[in-house]
Amino acid sequence: MLAVSAATLFFTPASVHAAGTVAGTDIVNVAQATFDGPSGGPPVTIDSNIVTIKVDELLDVTVVSSDPGDVATSPGLTAQATTYQVTNTGNGSEAFTLSADTAKPGDEFDTTFEQIILDTNGNGVYDPGVDTIYSPGTNDPVLAPDESITVFILSTIPAAATDADRAEIELSAVANTGSGTPGDIFAGQGDGGGDAVVGSTGASDEDSGFFLIQSAEVTLVKSATVLDPFGGTEPVPGAVIRYQLVATTTGTGSLTNLAITDDIPADTTYKAGSITLEGAALTDAPADADAGGFDGSAIAVSLGTVPGGQTRTITFQVTID
Amino acid sequence: MLKRLFLAIALIVPGTAMAANNVSLSSDVFIERKVAKPNGTTALVLEQPKTVIPGDNLVFVVKYKNVGRAPASDFSVTNPLPKAVAFNGTSDGTEIVSVDGGKTWGPLSALTYARENGETRPALMTDVTHVKWKFDRALSVGSEGKLIFRGTVK
């Protein structure tokens, strides 16, 4: 029972509004005394003097990366976004200056900084042309106590970045009224007319998001086996050549819309209906639902999206003219 | 003595019948601040603040004195907590409190707090809306004292 009540007590402060009493609020205290009136009259109540204390502005801010994990990207892409949440954890309305650092040490590559974007429509997703480009000192976001804003940093990924490399991208936010050591006072500059006091965050915070390069490559290996009309392997007219194409993907990313095409060699004739993928026969019609096709001069097989680390084997046959 | 009585009336309770007013009551609010001393230790000092910040610890001191010519019977002192202050206990533990704006009273451990959905739970210090001290004997002429409770700026 004791443990239960102790736990309850610890929980209590959390129920208090995170930012605390709004800056500029007056705390007004009056005590009252009551006692019996003279000669059995009605009770008398008297008030004490009034003590009024103003609540100062506490300058506090938090920055938290709000990407669910590393942001997957590929070399050479532009307008790649990392996402952050900036929250005014102070108790007054406050403007914050934002800055981005794309050149953090200790990661594998640096991106090229493009812009900081404010999530104007509040949907948590970067919308080009809709969300506002941030310009320090011009449109510093003003946040009410406990209010948050989503901020994006846009980066260009260098073409030289290689698969599985990571880049750290940091967003900083600093209270415009001032920052520094907790307890520092900016006299008379508080929201609501009191002082502004630097809170436990130092009125400045930063957090990092990460890009992760996920690229993939494909290699093709082609081989041929010949079967002549006499049961041998001589490439004579009438012999059938069976070509095998093995596509191998590598890397941590995926290849989308991977398609394999191969021209039918001169002086040979494609053997109708001979395309196979992973051992299963495909039709020759190029436009049907099936992945295979022959257009009169080349075979084509659409493999769709193939993750790194897989193989696809295609075969087809031609007859030597 | 009479002059002082008039002064008290003028300052504190304009409108109250003069004959009945024989108790003076004053309220002071102090803030606990940690001050670094030259020898490296920190001292807790009480200051009378003009401004505070959320999280500051306040000490409320209510002084009373029977300045009349007759004992005051059924004497009690009540301090409604300012909205921005969370109750943090008294120094003597003899108080009763209310968690519903002064409707029901008792020791904190005997009270329950009604949630918005109608459920109740044991009352917590942060639920307290009023603090009250009831004196079981009359306040004799000239006797005085002070009542102290603590609070935290929400």
List the helices and strands and how they pair.
The complex is a heterodimer of chains A (321) and B (154).
Chain A: H1 2-15, E1 26-29, E2 32-35, E3 44-47, E4 51-55, E5 57-59, E6 61-65, E7 71-73, E8 80-88, E9 94-101, E10 112-118, E11 132-133, E12 142-143, E13 148-156, E14 166-175, E15 185-186, E16 196-198, E17 204-213, E18 216-227, E19 240-251, E20 254-263, E21 268-270, E22 276-277, E23 280-281, E24 292-294, E25 298-307, E26 311-320
Parallel strand pairs in A: 5-16, 7-17
Antiparallel strand pairs in A: 1-4, 2-3, 6-8, 8-13, 9-12, 9-14, 10-11, 10-13, 14-17, 15-16, 18-19, 19-26, 20-25, 21-26, 22-23, 22-26, 24-25
Chain B: H1 2-12, E1 23-36, E2 42-47, E3 51-52, E4 57-66, E5 76-80, E6 85-90, E7 96-98, E8 112-114, E9 120-122, E10 130-134, E11 144-153
Antiparallel strand pairs in B: 1-2, 1-4, 4-11, 5-10, 6-11, 7-10, 8-9
Short description:
Chain A is mainly beta and 321 residues long.
Report on the architecture of this protein.
The complex is a heterodimer of chains A (321) and B (154). With 321 residues, chain A is mostly beta strands. Chain A is 4% helix and 48% strand. Chain A has 1 helix and 26 strands. Mean pLDDT of chain A is 91; it is low at 1-17. Chain B has 154 residues and is mainly beta. Chain B has one helix at residues 2-12, and strands spanning 23-36, 42-47, 51-52, 57-66, 76-80, 85-90, 96-98, 112-114, 120-122, 130-134, 144-153. In chain B, strands 2-1-4-11-6 form a 5-stranded antiparallel sheet, with no helix packed on it. Chain B has a 3-stranded antiparallel sheet with strand order 5-10-7, with no helix packed on it. The model of chain B is unreliable at 1-21 (pLDDT under 50). Classes of the chains: A mainly beta (321), B mainly beta (154). The interface between A and B is large, with 44 and 45 residues. Strand 4 (51-55) of chain A pairs parallel with strand 3 of chain B, so a sheet runs across the interface.
